[in-house]
User: Which sequence fits this backbone?
């Protein structure tokens, strides 16, 4: 079948994780993504882990998973010659994603705008303001969002999330806005400049509690995982590990009592009101703990789900691959990567028939000549650009 | 008026809590006409029925109109109530579906089918509809009917296991709802992909969006530790195995922290200057090289702590960032509100709604030129747009009153007691 984004050309510039994530979904649903890379390649190609633990520009895990199906061309965009190449290659593109410092982004934006392309810039703090030129990384960006502060126990250091999780969310934000820009360009003929500040993208979405403070004046407490007031919430031990509960609310707590064979506890005065319940966590554990310890996390999960309890097994990454639902759906897919062999990466973020397809990630500069040919550059012109270190 | 990037599209939202509703607000920010069909007579989970929950604005109005976590993902849409389990709810819903470009639902797998509103039914009503189901574990597969919040998906994708201080028991790991944020973003992309396919083929389509799959691809490094190298990824705290320094350091004040990093020699040179020891980056000093610093993590950390512990987090960060290294105060909500950057960009919004009063809200995820997003509608009151929307669907005032009298629609929830 023709993929849904066939015919959409997308330009990627900057080489970071966020911009790589932003264009991956376009690519896997059929867009022609041209990844314009600096000589030497960008950060995404330089992140560990690597195949066989040997650093190589074409064999990093982030590159192999996120650059699927893209075309790579090397162009030094800090030269006038490079900007001229960009102006030619960008013709006919619908959207460009640019992840650079603001000072570098502006000239690129001008060239892309002149080519009629909508532009999504990705920067830590936005294109203007007193912090615009600050250098940030994944974790320092996250520090500005309030989410890191809360992700901790009072008195101990705030914690980041998993590596590059914030950057991936920023990329997802850019992708969503960019997809909307493509829609508008194709339907209304109107191009746009969209600015994604990482701090704003991470702070304006959910999984944040700024509004708890702004509505009530109180902050969310920096507690550990298990709430002993509204419970069970958080990780609880079972026979072979832990399960994650979100069953503190009245409705789900009642279902849990039923699920563990103690429906009488719903009306027990110790647990019947929030005030009383908060005083009797230890008492409740005398019922819940033995029930959990008699079951594996998967058994506890499947049994309690039959009662509509919000609970899930807390697993390590490898276990996700073997989860019955993952296996049934094919949540991980295999891919033949030239020079590497068969690799396993995560499958589609959503399923529209069989429209998602991950193809191998390109070697650095693999498609430079191909793209320049299509843009009409002669042999001599290409050789001149190569000799002047503009392309590679 | 807000951005008109998606003007002309009508979206019907059947979802609650965070992921689905946030997607609706983002579509609304972009100019789509988003109609939130709120569960009735049962309230949405984010609407508290009693006083005392976290994040409730003070006031005399109904508690379910004053919850901050409900307001956050419900701007820029119209709110109607509709009891889809009531026989008289069927015809209004059919009319709504007929005029929609996209309908999405976030209930557990199998729920809408049991109510009689599966894809096979909706496509008959509107052959050009894009329908998206976004259960936690997706539509297809053995986990039919399973219920979850984002914290459960985070646990089951393997993310919870790598968040935390090394060696800490899992009981100490905090629940987070990150998959709600990514689920909302994924829904936008899915909707626009589905619409493009519809326009190419002339036919609507169904999309199965598993929120755990929408999260799983965002951990390529952690997955590859296992799939490429056979290692189980571990909790690392704030450490990056390839970068020194890279950690949270205690600052002056109560439970106050600043994050500091230097990813290369240039940033390290700036950091060393800010710390008052430029000689630490001079060639020949054991800390001057990337590898030298990797071998001296504890000593480098101690040197940074000695600098930060007597300074306010913002002062320490300003000094270090000003010298070209990486540093940020790890802010709480009042600290974020004080950010000179966010204030200079007028990022926070001051939003007034009938019962919650005027509140500071986090701003938009993006800015757009020429048509900036604007906060045209605060979170809708229960059934606030019933008259307007059902009127557009052809229901007269008398018919709307009859629907309300029958308990099919309404503008309030029953409070306990």
Assistant:
């Amino acid at each position: 079948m023709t993929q849904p984004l066939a015919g959409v050309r997308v330009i990627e510039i900057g080489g970071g994780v966020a911009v790589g994530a932003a264009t991956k979904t376009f690519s896997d649903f059929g867009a022609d993504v041209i990844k314009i890379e600096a000589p030497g390649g960008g950060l995404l190609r330089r992140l560990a882990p690597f195949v066989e633990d040997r650093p190589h520009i074409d064999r990093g895990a982030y590159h192999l998973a996120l650059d699927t199906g893209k075309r790579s061309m090397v162009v030094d965009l800090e030269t006038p010659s490079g900007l001229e190449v960009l102006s030619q290659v960008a013709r006919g593109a619908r959207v460009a994603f640019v992840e650079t410092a603001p000072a570098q982004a502006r000239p690129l934006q001008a060239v892309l705008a002149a080519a009629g392309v909508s532009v999504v810039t990705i920067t830590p703090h936005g294109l203007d303001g007193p912090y615009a030129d600050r250098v940030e990384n994944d974790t320092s960006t996250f520090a500005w969002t309030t989410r890191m502060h809360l992700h901790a126990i009072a008195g101990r250091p705030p914690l980041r999330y998993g590596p590059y999780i914030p950057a991936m969310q920023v990329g997802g934000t850019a992708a969503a806005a960019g997809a909307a820009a493509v829609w508008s360009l194709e339907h209304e003929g109107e191009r746009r400049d969209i600015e994604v500040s990482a701090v704003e993208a991470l702070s304006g979405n959910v999984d944040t509690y700024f509004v708890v403070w702004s509505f009530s004046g109180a902050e969310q407490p920096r507690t550990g995982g298990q709430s002993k007031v509204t419970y069970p919430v958080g990780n609880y031990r079972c026979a072979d590990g832990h399960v994650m509960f979100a069953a503190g609310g009245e409705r789900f707590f009642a279902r849990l009592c039923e699920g563990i064979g103690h429906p009488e506890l719903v009306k027990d005065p110790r647990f019947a009101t929030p005030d009383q319940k908060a005083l009797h966590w230890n008492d409740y554990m005398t019922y819940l703990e033995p029930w959990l310890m008699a079951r594996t996390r998967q058994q506890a999960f499947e049994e309690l789900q039959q009662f509509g309890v919000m609970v899930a097994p807390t697993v390590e990454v490898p276990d996700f691959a073997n989860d019955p639902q993952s296996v049934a759906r094919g949540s991980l897919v295999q891919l033949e990567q030239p020079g590497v062999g068969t690799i396993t990466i995560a499958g589609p973020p959503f399923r529209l028939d069989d429209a998602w397809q991950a193809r191998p990630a390109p070697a650095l500069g693999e498609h430079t000549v191909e793209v320049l040919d299509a843009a009409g550059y002669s042999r001599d012109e290409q050789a001149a650009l190569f000799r002047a270190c503009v392309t590679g | 008026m807000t951005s008109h990037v998606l003007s002309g599209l009508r979206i019907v939202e059947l979802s609650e809590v965070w992921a689905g509703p946030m997607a609706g607000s983002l579509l609304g920010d972009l100019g789509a006409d988003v109609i939130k069909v709120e569960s009735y007579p049962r309230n949405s989970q984010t609407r508290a029925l009693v006083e005392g929950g976290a994040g409730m604005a003070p006031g005399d109005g109904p508690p379910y109109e004053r919850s901050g976590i409900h307001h956050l993902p419900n701007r820029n849409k119209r709110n109607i109530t509709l009891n889809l389990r009531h026989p008289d709810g069927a015809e209004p819903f059919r009319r709504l579906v007929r005029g929609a470009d996209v309908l999405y639902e976030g209930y557990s797998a199998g729920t809408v089918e049991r109510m009689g509103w599966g894809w096979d039914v909706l496509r008959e009503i509107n052959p050009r509809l894009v329908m998206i189901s976004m259960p936690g574990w997706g539509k297809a597969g053995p986990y039919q009917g399973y219920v979850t919040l984002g914290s459960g998906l985070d646990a089951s994708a393997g993310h919870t296991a790598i968040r935390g201080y090394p060696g800490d028991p899992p009981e100490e790991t905090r629940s987070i709802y990150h998959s709600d944020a990514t689920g909302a973003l994924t829904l936008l992309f899915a909707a626009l992909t589905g619409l493009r396919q519809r326009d190419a083929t002339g036919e609507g389509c169904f999309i199965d969006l598993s929120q755990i799959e929408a999260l799983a691809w965002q951990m390529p490094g952690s997955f590859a530790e296992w799939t490429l190298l056979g290692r189980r990824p571990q909790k690392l705290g704030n450490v990056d195995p390839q970068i020194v320094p890279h950690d949270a350091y205690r600052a002056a004040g109560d439970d106050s922290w600043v994050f500091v990093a230097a990813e290369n020699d240039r940033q390290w040179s700036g950091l060393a200057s800010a710390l008052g020891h430029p000689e630490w980056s001079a060639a020949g000093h054991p800390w001057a090289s990337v590898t030298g610093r990797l071998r001296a993590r504890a000593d480098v950390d101690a040197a940074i702590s000695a600098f930060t512990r007597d300074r306010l987090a913002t002062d320490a960060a300003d000094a270090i960032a000003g010298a070209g290294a990486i540093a940020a105060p790890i802010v709480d909500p009042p600290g974020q509100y004080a950010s000179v950057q966010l204030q200079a960009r007028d990022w926070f919004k001051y939003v007034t709604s009938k019962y919650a009063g005027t509140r500071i809200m986090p701003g938009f995820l993006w800015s757009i030129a020429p048509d900036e997003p604007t906060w045209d509608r605060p979170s809708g009151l229960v059934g606030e747009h019933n008259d307007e929307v059902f009127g557009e669907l052809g229901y007269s005032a008398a018919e709307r009153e009859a629907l309300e009298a029958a308990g099919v629609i309404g503008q309030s929830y029953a409070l306990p007691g």
